[in-house]
Amino acid sequence: MTAKSPLDNIARYPENREQADADALIRYYAAFGEMHAHLAQALTDPEWEKKSIGHVVYSYMAVYLLSELRERAGYRQADEVAREMWEDLEGGALPPILWEYVSEEGLSHEAIAVAAKEVEANIRAKAEDAPKPEAASVPANQPELPLDGA
Length: 150
Hints:
The chain is built from five helices and no strands. The protein is an all-alpha fold.
């Protein structure tokens, strides 16, 4: 079987609800987080470094919460929560779920939207100021291919 991810032979991400117990998610996110900790140290691109640090933080939160739930509430409850979490992640409905949590916590959707617009403006401003990459060229020792695919 060909690995789909470098982590598949270490801690495979669950493929279905039955596989998505607390142990499986803890193992996967622990490995995923550690892999990104290595990448954050190794990468010189600041944007990739930030992304990897974000993956480390989110992985830690998942591992910590599922581990604590397993220890305090037992395997049965931890497995059920893990499976519900996996279904939410795989279902692609995270924004509406987060909307519900924001509402339940009494947070302002409008204030969050304003904060998002501020971050977006900062990102766009940085992108406009960033140096533009030079056009790629074919190395001298390589033949140019026709653009029409012929």
